Amino acid sequence: MARMLAWQVHRPGPIGTRPLRQVSLPVPQPGPGELLVRVTACGVCRTDLHLAEGDLPPVRPDTVPGHEIVGEVVDAGADAAGFAIGDRVGVAWLRHTDQTCRYCRAGAENLCPASRYTGWHADGGYAQYTVAPADYAYQLPGAYDDVHVAPLLCAGIIGYRALRRADLPRGGRLGVYGFGASAHLAAQVALAEGATVHVVTRAPAAQRLALDLGAASAGADRPPEPVDAAILFAPVGSLVPVVLSHLDRGGTLAIAGIHLTDIPTLNYEEHLFYERSLRSVTANTRDDGRDFLAFAQDHPLRVTAGPRPLAQAGEALADLAADRVTGAAVLVP
């Protein structure tokens, strides 16, 4: 039986304890409705770090993380429709919903209680091969190579949904807090739609990137003016009251991460009065993914991404934890 190199989350813990281990596994076989994908690139997402460190509790032992997967279809199970052998394909975070619950019927499959996720409920892309349900895979925009399209599959899609959840008015002022892989893509969408973007980040390299992409300001403190909408990408709950205080009347804060440290006590008059809103962002629907990838085809985005050998997956996660990654790191088998 053919085998492959892969990384598993063996014992979740601080990244310095090396929670990933490199293993040799059998190449998986596609079941009904599934594609076997030879991985050509897999983005390194902060969700992978949360899984490795235990902030996101494992649901199965020794899971292969990774859900920003680009690859080539090399085999398919029965009834796997929409792709042919040799097609380039994208595999993202959402991999299953029941399609029968009230959330799915209402177009909110991201809230489905039976939802399942790549690199959490099933092995993901920190490997040479993976399997994925064809119904949840994506056709990819041809304007990007494998390394630069990989971050679009989670960082891009989640940033896009967070931007929509933030209810940014046309031509409005957007505050972006944290400026990693997802933020630098969402900011470009907002800029393309005519927004004024203010970025708050401590990292000097991220500040330079934000200004280079067209942000009106980038600093470590606060925007120079109140903002109509804000997205918090940093998983730091203590920033929630800070960002709420930066909103103009009627503004909305969307929190983009899957994990957030505890939020301090909010003061109603200071943080929420004048009809300010606080929203979470939970995964995405497939329509979000299709809409964003179509936008990325029609509005070329500058994806800041650096390839890393698959053998350096642990180092890539450590660099992400230490804020040493500008844009996105992408593993290349």
TrEMBL record:
SMART domains linked to this entry: PKS_ER
InterPro entries per the UniProt record, alphabetical: ADH-like_N, ADH_Zn_CS, ADH_Zn_typ-2, ER, GroES-like_sf, NAD(P)-bd_dom_sf
Homology family: Belongs to the zinc-containing alcohol dehydrogenase family.
Annotated Gene Ontology cellular component terms: cytoplasm
Stored Pfam families: ADH_N (PF08240)
Cofactor: Zn(2+)
Enoyl reductase (ER) domain boundaries: 16-331
SUPFAM superfamilies per the UniProt record, alphabetical: GroES-like, NAD(P)-binding Rossmann-fold domains
E.C. numbers: 1.1.1.1
Keyword Cell membrane: no
Organism classification: Bacteria, Bacillati, Actinomycetota, Actinomycetes, Micromonosporales
Record's protein name: Probable alcohol dehydrogenase AdhA
Entry keywords, A to Z: Metal-binding, NAD, Oxidoreductase, Zinc
Catalytic activity: a secondary alcohol + NAD(+) = a ketone + NADH + H(+); a primary alcohol + NAD(+) = an aldehyde + NADH + H(+)
